Amino acid sequence: MRLCMYLQHFGFESLPFRNTPDPRFFFQTAKHNEALANLIYAVEQRRGFVLLSGEIGSGKTLITHLLMQHLEDHAQMALIRNTHLNSAQLIRLICDEFSIQVAPGTDKATMLLAINQFLIQQLAEDRLVVVIIDEAQNLSDKVMEELRMLSNLETSSDKLLQIVLVGQPELRDKVSQPHLEQLRQRIGLSYHLDPLTLDEVTAYIHHRLAVAGANHRAVFVQGAIEKVARFSHGTPRIINGLCDNALLYAFTAGQHTIDEALIDRVIKQSMHLVPRHRTLPTHSPVVDTGEPTRPVETPVADRPRNPGETQEAVAEIDDTDDKKKEPPVFQFRPSLTG
C-alpha cells in the first residue's frame, strides 16, 4: 500500500532508481554504447577472449545482460558468478550450465572432451557458445590458466568458445602479470568503462525518471544533481542509491522537489555508498588511456589444429592476421531503450 502511495505521489509507474539490471533503464552514453557494440562484435566474430572492466556499479552487469539479450537467438550462453572455484569445479560448472551430461566423479580430461564435442556440435549448427564470468578479478591464477587452455578449443578458422571476463579494474592488473602473459596475448578485445561526467549524470537521472513515468512530478534541481555527481564519482549504482533515498525523503516530507539541502541530508546518511575514488571526469572519455576504443587485433595462436587437441596444444604466437575487419555500427533495438 505504501509503495502504491509513493508511486502515485510522484506519478511513477515503476521505481526509477532500483539497482537491478533492467534493460528498460539502459542509458546510452557514448561509452556504454561503445562497450556493448564492441562486445557484440568481438563475440560474433569469434575472437575468443574478451575483457570488460569498470569500477563497482559502473554498469558492467547491465551491459552483460544486454549482450546476452542480443545473443539469445543464436548462442548458447553460461553466466558464471561464483569465481571462488578451482579448475575442476569450473569445468564441472560449465558442463552443468550447458546441460552437458557427465557422470558424478568424472575426471577433468573426460569433461573437457565432452565440452569439446558439444562445441563442435554447436558450430555445426552455426551457434555461438559464450561463457561470461562476472567478478573475474577473483579467479585464481590456476583457473585463469585453465581458461587459457579452454581457449585452445578451435578449428582451423574459428574459436569454438567465446569467453567474456567481466570485473573490477583489478582484473586488468591481474591479466597483466608476467606469468599470465600467454593469456593476456589471447585477449581479442579489452574495454574499460569510465565513470559518467557531470553532463551524463544529469541526463542519466532525467532518463530514469522519464522511463519510470512519462508524466512524473519529481524535480531534481541542478544543484542537487551536481552534489550527487560529486559524491558518486559518476558511478551509476551510487547515483541510484542516492536518488532513491532522496525520493523517499521527499515522499515522507510530502514534497516533489529534490534540492541541495535534501541531498545533503541524504549524503549524511549514505556514507556506506562512498566510492573508492572521488574525482569526477570533466569531459566524456570513451576509454581510459592505453585501452583500445575499437576492437584491436592481438596476437593469436597458430590456427591449424584439430579441435580435439585441447589440453596439449602449445601456443605459438602469430603476429599477423589477414582477417582484419572494421566493427559495424550497431543499431540498438527499441526494446533495449525503454
What this model shows, in words?
With 338 residues, this protein is α/β, with parallel strands linked by helices. The protein has 2 domains: 26-194 and 285-337, Rossmann fold, CATH 3.40.50.300; 197-273, Orthogonal Bundle (Helicase, Ruva Protein, domain 3), CATH 1.10.8. The protein has helices spanning 2-10, 30-44, 60-71, 87-97, 108-124, 141-150, 170-175, 181-185, 198-212, 222-232, 236-253, 260-268, 334-337, and strands at residues 49-54, 75-80, 128-133, 162-167, 187-193, 219-220, 257-258, 300-301, 317-318. It has a 5-stranded parallel β-sheet with strand order 2-3-4-1-5, sandwiched between helices. The chain has a two-stranded parallel ribbon with strand order 6-7. The chain has a two-stranded antiparallel sheet with strand order 8-9. α6 links the parallel β3 and β4. α2 packs across α3 (60-71), α4 (87-97) runs parallel beside α5 and α11 (236-253) packs across α12 (260-268). The model is unreliable at 278-338 (pLDDT under 50).
